């Protein structure tokens, strides 16, 4: 079965360089810092009774959602680099010699990165829940770890991270230049999209469009985020619609990338 | 034992815009021998090989392995082993993992990477990251990739480039042995002298067109056979040869005789009672015919 052989090969590719654990390590640090820090701030504010009214029942998910709301850039980078490094190091040559059917290779990459993104999701949630729950407990707030709703949220977060990783694959196929892909990921996720989301919330019609931005869709899928908490009036998709938007972006980018860069002559 | 499969180019053409990188290339490469694919840089060798391997789409024509295009081979790495350039790997991956990635994709046995590294003499460096490899080690790793599936056809682009003299000798023996086992071996080079001692047959292209095809010796069509000869009494030697009707010129290390056979000059000297200190046939023909065939760029 050449598809499963290709997936096996892609998994080995991913695990045999340092990239994945370097990214995972930075992600854990970043997510834990945000979740722990904001947990301390909100926990402190909440217990002194003079801050904005964030219901205690929502606070844990808000804190835990740093896994996706700040952590999603890491699976995107992982996916984009998995594709662009093939172009950069000209390893498409041996790859296509071993598996001449290029669609199989790209499909195997998408599946592998979906799995890797899910693993990144689990790691990020361990970081956010680990740091967040201990801080919340320290302030006497119930971290809701026994709550079924919390675990449904965890499942949706893992799905979101997996889809983000697939979006990275699509982006890499669309923009094979590694530097350009990294710049686009960082600029879009850290700067352009937050601005667009803020701008979109000013009018009703733009808010309707704004909910389809990938970050908004991801927050809708996960069900909690600092962004939505900061502007609670804004409209939002249902969780499954958010998931479909992310999957759609990944699919469209990958298919276009397949026809524009992946099928080109390798020289 | 893998049986060789012929490589067949039929009217293969690749155009980039108005420029024909390869035009109407038709040639069959038979198993059981080493075939040199020669031409100056930019003649279209690499493009032809990439079309053969399904990496570049031909504008027209076909390139197949016994009638089957690369993309339709049931098990490509078991049929064809190819090495195209020394630098197609991720520098952060170890040699063993580099090979394991492709062995897994091709469904080869788990032992294949180590066996291939053993064959090219890189076993001791299997765990080292490839980024730290020398050019010669990269060439060997490229060859290890080609040997991964114990293929019946070998296609190597400039395999000798970057090897040290010991490595050149080693690859020469390896390729000869593989051809002797009945495999098809095609190696490209821009230098005839580099592969002269390795190949049986040559295919020469220039500006994307086939300009010569035949046994290596078929290139040796030049009339200007020269003999270099030396003796302690060089002046007398030159005189004797000149009187026999040859054209003679003086070199720093002897006398150069135009249009002569070494045996004939040896007999002349013996008859005149002159002890020779050196006698050799100069074969400038090969290189010169090669340069004539490929035109001006042959000097590259």
Automatic annotation (TrEMBL), chain A:
Source taxon at top rank: Bacteria
Keywords, alphabetical: Membrane, Transmembrane, Transmembrane helix
Membrane-spanning residues: 20-42, 62-83, 110-141, 161-188, 239-259
Name used for this protein in its record: ABC transporter permease
TrEMBL record, chain B:
Span of domain ABC transporter: 7-232
Keyword annotations: ATP-binding, Nucleotide-binding, Transport
One MF annotation (Gene Ontology) recorded for this entry: ATP binding
Gene3D superfamilies: P-loop containing nucleotide triphosphate hydrolases
UniProt keyword Lipoprotein, yes or no: no
Family listed: Belongs to the ABC transporter superfamily.
Name of the protein in its database record: ABC transporter ATP-binding protein
């Amino acid at each position: 079965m050449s598809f499963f052989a290709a997936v096996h090969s892609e998994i080995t590719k991913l695990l045999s360089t340092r990239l994945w654990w370097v990214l995972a390590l930075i992600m854990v640090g970043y997510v834990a810092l945000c979740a722990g820090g904001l947990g301390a701030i909100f926990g402190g504010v909440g217990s002194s009774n003079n801050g904005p009214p964030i219901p205690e029942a929502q606070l844990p998910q808000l804190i835990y959602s740093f896994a996706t709301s700040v952590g999603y850039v890491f699976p995107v980078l992982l996916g984009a680099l998995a594709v662009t490094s093939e172009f950069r190091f000209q390893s498409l040559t041996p790859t296509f010699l071993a598996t001449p059917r290029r669609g199989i290779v790209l499909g195997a990459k998408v599946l592998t990165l979906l799995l890797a993104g899910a693993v990144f999701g689990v790691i990020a949630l361990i970081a956010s829940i680990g740091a967040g729950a201990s801080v919340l407990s320290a302030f006497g707030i119930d971290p809701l770890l026994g709550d079924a709703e919390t675990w449904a949220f965890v499942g949706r977060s893992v799905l979101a991270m997996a889809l983000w990783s697939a979006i990275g694959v699509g982006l890499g196929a669309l923009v094979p230049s590694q530097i350009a892909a990294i710049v686009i990921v960082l600029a879009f996720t850290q700067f352009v999209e937050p601005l667009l989301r803020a701008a979109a919330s000013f009018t009703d019609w733009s808010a309707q469009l704004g909910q389809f931005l990938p970050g908004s869709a991801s927050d809708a899928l996960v069900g909690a985020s600092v962004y939505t908490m900061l502007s609670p009036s804004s409209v939002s998709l249902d969780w499954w619609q958010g998931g479909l938007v992310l999957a759609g972006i990944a699919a469209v980018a990958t298919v276009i990338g397949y026809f524009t860069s992946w099928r080109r002559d390798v020289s | 034992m893998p049986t060789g499969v012929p490589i067949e180019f039929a009217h293969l053409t690749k155009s980039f815009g108005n420029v024909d990188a390869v035009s109407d290339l038709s040639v069959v490469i038979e198993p059981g021998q080493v075939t040199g694919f020669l031409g100056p840089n930019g003649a279209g060798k690499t493009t032809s090989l990439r079309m053969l391997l399904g990496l570049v789409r031909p504008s027209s024509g076909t390139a197949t392995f016994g009638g089957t295009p690369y993309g339709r081979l049931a098990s490509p790495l078991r049929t064809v082993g190819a090495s195209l350039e020394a630098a197609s790997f991720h520098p952060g991956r170890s040699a063993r993992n580099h090979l394991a990635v492709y062995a897994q994709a091709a469904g080869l046995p788990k032992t294949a990477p180590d066996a291939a590294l053993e064959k090219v003499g890189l076993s001791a460096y299997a765990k080292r990251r490839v980024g730290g490899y020398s050019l010669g080690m990269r060439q060997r790793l490229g060859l290890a990739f080609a040997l991964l599936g114990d293929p019946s056809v070998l296609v190597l682009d400039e395999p000798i480039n970057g090897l040290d003299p010991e490595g050149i000798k080693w690859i020469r023996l390896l390729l000869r042995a593989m051809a002797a086992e009945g495999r098809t071996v095609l190696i490209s080079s821009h230098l005839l002298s580099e592969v002269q001692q390795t190949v049986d047959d040559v295919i020469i292209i220039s500006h994307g067109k086939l300009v010569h095809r035949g046994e290596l010796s078929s290139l040796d069509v030049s009339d200007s056979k020269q003999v270099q000869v030396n003796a302690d009494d060089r002046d007398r030697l030159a005189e004797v040869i000149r009187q026999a009707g040859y054209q003679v010129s003086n070199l720093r290390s002897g006398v150069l005789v135009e249009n002569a056979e070494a045996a004939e000059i040896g007999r002349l000297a013996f008859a005149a009672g002159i002890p020779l200190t050196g006698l050799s046939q100069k074969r400038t023909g090969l290189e010169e015919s090669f340069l004539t065939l490929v035109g001006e760029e042959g000097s590259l």
